[in-house]
Design goal:
By secondary structure, the protein is mostly helical. The protein has a domain at about 20-60. Helix content is about 65%, strand content about 0%. The protein is built from five helices and no strands. The model has no long low-confidence stretch (mean pLDDT about 85).
Length: about 70
């Protein structure tokens, strides 16, 4: 899927893009964890523990549409 197609799906609130805050927080934490400096800072300041808890609590549910794609 091209970037333009993805932007169109987001703009039109398509079923292909999950709009829930829960899912967005989950993947935002995942993106932040990939930055080594932020990960080290989170470990040093103690923010890593609440972030890991939030990450585990916001895990997205399996989509009901995944089975229909096969």
């Amino acid at each position: 899927m091209s970037t333009a197609e993805l932007a169109r799906h987001c703009r039109e609130r398509s079923e292909l893009v999950d709009q829930s805050t829960r899912t967005r927080v989950h993947f935002f934490i995942r993106r932040l964890a990939k930055v080594a400096r932020l990960r080290k800072l989170a470990l040093l300041t103690g923010v890593a523990l609440p972030a890991m808890l939030t990450y585990s609590l916001t895990r997205p549910w399996k989509s009901k549409h995944i089975g229909s794609l096969s």
